[in-house]
Amino acid sequence: MDDWRKQQRTVSALVVKRSGRPQLYPGLDRGEMDGVQIDVDPRGHPWTVTQSNDIYSSNGTSWTYRGKGRDIGIGANGTVWRIEVNPIGTSDYKISKWNGSSWNAAVNGGGVRIDVDPTGLPWVVNSAGDIWFMNDTGNFTQAQGLKGVDIGIGGTLGSVYVVSNEPYSSYGNKKVYHLTGTNTWKLTNGGGVRISVDYTTGKPWVVTYDGTAWASTN
Prior knowledge:
The protein is mainly β. Helices cover about 0% and strands about 55% of the residues.
């Protein structure tokens, strides 16, 4: 993968802190908290989803249970959204927002992967690979031109990246695209299965099929 720098650690999930430094999580062997999905709030504190779909948030010294979910996304302004465990349709799950003490009622939409843009609005990928984003009125609009399996958003609206459903290699990695305009997707020269985006630089990090983390240098 040209223009990508390999990280010397095997991980199952990663997130890039607001400081621009990566947080690499190898899953069950970390010791602090097990997790299969993760995001980090603007203070640098992680929220994680465990294998049993429990959500926990850290204040830097301890963990607090925050209910059930399948994925978690946090925007640059601190807004937290989750993919619930409650199904909608046959293969997707409801979406709800954290209000500081509890989860609001689910909104009208569903998916399997989620992240949050800098204005606090969620972007989701559903089980069919469709990419949807919430607008200012609270309604979802479908982003056209690409199917995805994961999404990552940095600190600006110009830093939306998607792991597509298009094969990158014979090993299970998928091509990565950058949203450069309305329904305009630019193919990068990397691939992976999971993605997060640096809040500061807007550059993506990916995890490949074998658990290797790669940082974009382009």
